[in-house]
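Hi,

I'm pasting everything inline rather than attaching a file, because the server keeps stripping attachments. The sequence lines come first, and each chain or strand is labelled.
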Amino acid sequence: MLIQGIAEILNIECLITIIAGVSLGIIFGCIPGLTAHMAMVLCLPLSFGMSSVLGTTLLVSLFIGGISGGCIAAILINIPGTPAAVATCFDGHPMAKRGEAGKALGVAILSSFTGGMFSVIVLIFLSPILARFALKFGPFEYAAVSIFSLTLISSLIGDSLIKGLISAFLGMGFATVGLTPIDCFPRMTFGLHSLDGGFDMVAVLIGLYAVQEVINAANDKELGDTKIHEYNMKGFGVSLKEFFSHSKNIFRSSIIGTGIGILPGLGASVANIVSYAAAKRASNHPEKFGTGILDGIIASEVSNNATVGGAMVPLLSLGIPGDGQTALLLGALMIHGLVPGPMLFVNNLKFVYNIFGVLLIAHFAMIILARSGLKIFVSMLRTPKNILMPIVMMLCILGAFATNNRIFDVWCILFFGVIAYLFEASDIPSPPFVMAFILSPIIETNLRRGLMSSGGSFLPFITKPIALTFILISLIFLFFSIRKDIINNKKRKLNQAEF
Amino acid sequence: MKKRLLALLICTIMLLFIGCGNSTSNQQPVDNENNAAAAVNDWPKKAITLTIACSPGGDTDYNIRTIGKYLEEELGVPVVSTNIIGAGGLTGYRHAKDATPDGYTLLSDHSAFIVSKAIGQHDFGFDNAFELVGAYATVPGEVVCVNKKSGITNMKELVEATEKNPGKLKIATNIGSTTQIVSNMIEEAGAKVTQVDVGGTPEKVVALLGGHADIISGQYGALKQYVDAGEMNVIGIFEKERHPMMPEVPTFVEQGFDTLVFDPPFSHFFLAFPKGTPQAIVDKMAAACEKIVTTNKDYAEDIKKFYEIPTWRSADEALEVYNKVEERCLEYLIK
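And the predicted assembly:
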C-alpha cells in the first residue's frame, strides 16, 4: 500500500511541486521573521486551485522546508530563522564563529532529515495507537507536561541561579499580558488596546534574537571579518560514523520531538528547547554545551523536524490540528472535500498513503536541496555586516508586520530587542525567558480548565497516572539539580579557599 | 566607525517605520464636499481590505475569503483578505473600527461579534462603531453530541441520566462563545451537568474522545465524521425543523424541548464598514454582495463545503436578526 502510495506521486507534476515547495519553505525558514506558517498561509489560496493531492503536497513540502530552513540563519548569523530553531543558535553559531559553519550546517541538515524520517515512520506505523494515547491528555496532563518542561529550564540557566530566575520570571510576566485565558479579563494592558492580544511569540523571538544581534553588530568594531575556512567540504562535513556516535542523543531528541508534535497545542517551538535542555542534562559533558558542539545542534534540529510527523498523527487519525501549520492543512483538505479523521482512513485510504509518500519524498528533497545550497549559504558570511544586518533588520520588520498585519508588532520587536540587549549587558541568559514565555500560558490555561472540571481540587495531579508521572519526574529533576548546585558551590568554595 | 554604523542603522529603522506608517494613514482625507462626492462616485477605484478577525485556515476564514474572492470579480478591484487576530477577535474588530471610513476597509465576521459584545468584551455595535452592509451567509446545524459509551441517544435520556447523578456528566464549553450559550441552554432545559471550559472545536473533540468531557456541542459539519465512525451519538439539533442538509439529525423541539432552538439560526456572516463611511458606498457594496449571494451558483457551491448556506439579509433585516441573537445572549449568559 505504501509503495503504491509513493509510486502514485512519483510523477513530474508532484515532484516539481515538492521541489518548489521545499525550496520556498527553506527560503522562508532561513529568513528571520518569515516562518513556515507564513509560507503556508501565502500558498493556501494557490492550493485551492490544485487537485487535492497536489495541493496537500505543496503545503506539506512548505511545512517541511520551512522547519528545516530555520537552522541556516541560526548557525550563520545567530538569529533563528523560525521559532523552531532557537536552540540551534546556542551551539550552531559558536561553531560558525570558529569557522566551522559548513560542518554545523551539514550536521543540522542531516539531523533535520533523521528526525523528520523518524517521525514519518512513526506516523506511518503507529499513528492510530499514538493518537488514542494522546487523547488521554486532559488539562491536568498538559499542565504536568508543561511544568516538567519548565523544570528543564534549570539546565539552561547558566552560572548564576538568580540571573536565570530573573530571566524566567520576566518571561512569565510578559506572558501574562493580554486578555486572560477562559474569562477574557484584560490584564497588564494599561488600557492599551494593542496589548489586548498579548505579545506575539514571533515578535518576541525576533526581538530577543534578531534585533539584539543587529544591535550587537552595530556595537562591533570589526566589520564582516568572520573567519571562513577555505575548505572543500565533502558530504556533510561529518562522517556518518561520527554522526551516529550521537545515536543516543538522536533517538532521545526524535522521541521528544515526535511526542511533543503529537500533543496538540505544543509544537516545534517548544520541542527544540526542551530537547536541547534534555540533551544537556543527559550529557556527560554538559559544560561544553553552548561552546559549539555537535550535540546541541543535533538535539535541536532532530527534534524540530520530528514534530512534523508527530503533528500529522492527530491531524490524520483524529482530524485534530495540533498547531497553526496543521490547522492550515486541515482547512485545505476540507476544501477538497477530504475530512481528516477516523473516516479518512476508511474513505480515502489511497490519499492517506499519498500523503505518507509526500512526507518521505519531501524529506529527501529537503536534504538534497539544502546540501546543494550549502555553499551559497556559507558564502553569505562573506557579506560585510554593515550590509547584511540592515537587510536582516528590514526582513525582521517585514516579518513582524506580516505576523498579524499590525505595526504594533514591529514596535514589539524593537522593545524586546532592547530588553535582550540589557540582558546581555547584565549577563542574564535569554533561553529561560523564551521557555517561560512559551510554556506559562499553556500551564495557566490548562490548570484553570483542570480546576474547573475537578471543582477546584488539585487531587487529579496525583490520581491521574500520566500527570503523576510527570510531576514525579519534575520533582526528581529539581532535587538533583539542587543537589548538584550545592555540590558545585561547595567545590567552588573549596577551590577559593585553596587559592 | 561605530557611531556612524549605529546612526545608519537607526536611520534605516526609522525610514521603515515611516514607510510602514504611511501606508495606513495616507488614505485621502475627505475634507470638502466636492471631493467627498467624487470619492463616493468613483468608489471603488483601489484595493479594498477585508479584515478577518480569526486565524487563517478555519471555516470562518474560508467563508470570508470566498465572499472576498467573488466581491473582487463583482467590483473589479482587488479585495485583500487580511487576518488580524488576537484577544478572541477583539484586535481585528478594533482595527476595522478605527480605520479611515472611506469605503476601503471592511470587516467581516459572524455572530461571535455579537456574543463577545453581549458578555461585555467590547461595546462596538452596528449603531455606534460600524455601518452594517448586510448578512450574507448562515451556518445551520448547532448540534449536541455525547460519548457513545454513555449509551445516551436522546435529550430525554440525557436529562434522566443527570438526574440520577447530578453534576457527574461534564459538558464542554468555551466561555464567551456560542458554545457557552448552548451549554447554559442545556442546563436550563433540566440537564444537571457540570460545565468545563475546553476551548474551540478541535479541543472539544479531544475532550469527548479522551473522556475529559461527556457532552459537546458544535457545528454538525465538523462533528459528522465522528458520528459516522461510531465515536459519538448526536442527540439533537437547535433547529425548528429537521435540516434538509442533515435530515438524519432529530431536533430538540420534536423531542419535546421547546426552548432548545435557535430561530432564526444563530450564526450569520456579515459585512460592515467603519462608522462614518458614506451611505452611498455602503449601498453599492450591499448591491454587489446581494447579487453574488442571490445569483452566483459558484459561490453557493464553494461555501457548501463547510455546510454554509448563502442567505442575503439587507442591513435592516440583518440588524433585526442580530438584535434577537443579542437578546438571547443576554438571556442565557448574564443573569
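Chain A is about 75% helix and 0% strand.

If the labels don't parse on your end, tell me and I'll reformat.
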